[in-house]
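Sample entry copied in:
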Amino acid sequence: MFRKKLSRLQFQRFMAEHPPCRVAMEACASAHYWGRELEALGHQVRLIPPIYVKPFVKRQKNDANDAEAIVEAAARPTMRFVPVKTAEQQSRAMVFKTRDLLVRQRNQIVNALRGHLMEYGIVAPAGLTFVKSLVHQINDPDSDLPPLVIELAVCISITSRPAASG
């Protein structure tokens, strides 16, 4: 209905001034936040997964063409929509994603440590359970590791230990 380019603040004011209507948006990073904001204003929000919008983009990707594609996709009677997540649902998802990222990074650090120590003849099998074995070999007084390598390896091994459950 409108062809206006608005900043986020202008968009919120613009939507507050209009009577409740159906608003279609692509389900992106901030879509759930905006969905909650618009629902609080009385609007009916429809979030469309990006994969369902893409076939409707006619030309090069830009905001105007994306908006046109979203309108076209939302008008389809068989379109699938994503429900707007509550702030609580998003916070639980954030905890899960953050923990998953930290676990992957911890595994990367342990694998990097193993790889670096192999260059000095210190070998341990893959896996977090063998970090203690690496630490024992690093701290061995008979090892001929340079002090800088020992310091770095100890720092890495400390940060890569699994957190205590509880």
Summary: The chain has two domains: 8-74, 87-159. The CA atoms of residues 12 and 34 lie 9 Å apart.
